[in-house]
Amino acid sequence: MDLSAYKGLIFDMDGTLIDSMPAHIQAWRQTCEMYEIPFDEEWIYSLGGMPSIKTAQQINHRYRQNFDTQRLANTKYHFFDQIEFKGDVIRSTYDLLQEHRESKKVAVGTGSASLNAVPLLESTGILPMLDALVTADNVERHKPFPDTFIEAARRIGLQPEECVVFEDTELGKQAALAAGMDCIMVVDGAITSLTKAAR
Q1: Pairing of strands 8-11, 190-195
Q2: In the predicted structure, residue 48 carries a pLDDT above the cut 90
Q3: pLDDT tens digits, one per residue of 23-36
Q4: Are 196 and 176 in contact, with CB atoms under 8 Å apart?
Q5: Burial of 141 (0-12, 13-18, 19+ CB in 10 A)
Q6: pTM as predicted
Q7: Cα–Cα dist 169/16, whole Å
Q8: Axis-axis angle for helices 147-155, 170-178 (nearest 10)
Q9: What is the Cα–Cα distance from 129 to 106, expressed in whole angstroms?
Q10: Catalytic residues, which ones?
Q11: Pairing of strands 190-195, 163-167
Q12: CA 33 from chain center: how many Å?
């Protein structure tokens, strides 16, 4: 893949660099069972990129409930923590990161909280390869807002148009394009289409 047009590569984490979405889905399934909430796997997956607290808010909205969103999110964190193997690297993007990490700036921009993201990036050996990490704790507005990726570009000292984002969800793609960055989609572990940002 020709990435010569870019000085920076910004990767989403869950479902893009690490195959951790099944673990997140499992944790949400257990949370929904505990609170007797209908569980829609496809819908939960579509919210990938949102912090757990925002997903909890979406659950309240969708099912017209009034759950304590912090308690829902904390329950999900607890179940996620208990999952021993949370996923391996996604080879296509991981290889790309390794190939370009000497010649380009590399960052991760994730909707996961630091308490989930850092151990996962450490256990897969990715963390030491990054020039910057932006988690849900570092921005106030999360995907589909552009703030995560704008902050990642700022931390690696580049303009948005100098960066390309790798994402696996529509929410993430919206965030990348809103940040003024081109976006390459990762579908089922395969690098697919490039969408250019409006300039």
Answers
A1: unpaired
A2: no
A3: 999 999 999 999 99
A4: no
A5: exposed
A6: 0.93
A7: 9
A8: 60
A9: 8
A10: 12
A11: unpaired
A12: 24
Helix (H, G, I), strand (E, B) or coil at 186: strand
| pLDDT bracket for residue 49 (50, 70, 90) | confident
171 token code pair:
């929410």
Over the stretch 66-106, which tens digit does the pLDDT of each residue have?
A: 999 999 999 999 999 999 999 999 999 999 999 999 999 99
Question: What is the full DSSP assignment across 37-104?
Answer: ----HHHHHHTTTS-HHHHHHHHHHHHT----HHHHHHHHHHHHHH-S----B-HHHHHHHHHHTTTS
CA distances from 178 to 48, 132, 142, 174 (A): 17, 20, 12, 6
Residue type, 173: K
What are 104-163's pLDDT values in tens digits?
Answer: 999 999 999 999 999 999 999 999 999 999 999 999 999 999 999 999 999 999 999 999
> What's the one-letter identity of residue 71?
R
Size of the chain, expressed as the number of residues it contains: 199
- How far CA 164 is from CA of 103, 119, 181, 186, in Å, comes to 14, 25, 6, 13
- Residue 196 CB neighbour total at 10 angstroms: 11
Contact 30, 186 (CB under 8 A): no
